[in-house]
Amino acid sequence: MFGLVVAALLLISPRDKEYAAIDGAALLIAMLALSPMTSRYHFVLVLPAVILVAAAVINDRRMRVFGGVVLAASFMLLTGTSNDLTAWFFGDFPYVYGFMTEGAIVLLAALAAMAGIWRPPGIAAGESRSLEQAPL
Hints:
The chain is mainly alpha-helical.
């Protein structure tokens, strides 16, 4: 089921070079969520997705509320449950029950919204520019 969600996200994403970072961040999250060998130290790979969503929250009014909620939820599930911010006995509980993976998956909602509504500067809402037509 999760693979279908990621495939749908990649299908709705426009095929422009400006959206390559969204596709890459979605693939990194899918890799972390689907890999049985993922360790808690691998979740540093979520950082590109967090940076993309934070940039969208700062620069796009339509993403401020939704993106802010997604960032807060992701922080609480990923970082807020680490050994550094909580007591030592609470550090393994979130990892065992998948809070870190869920915190990464929450970011997919914001990436999907960005792929659907976000337009880079110079591209109108109905216009699409393929890689062949893009100026060098």
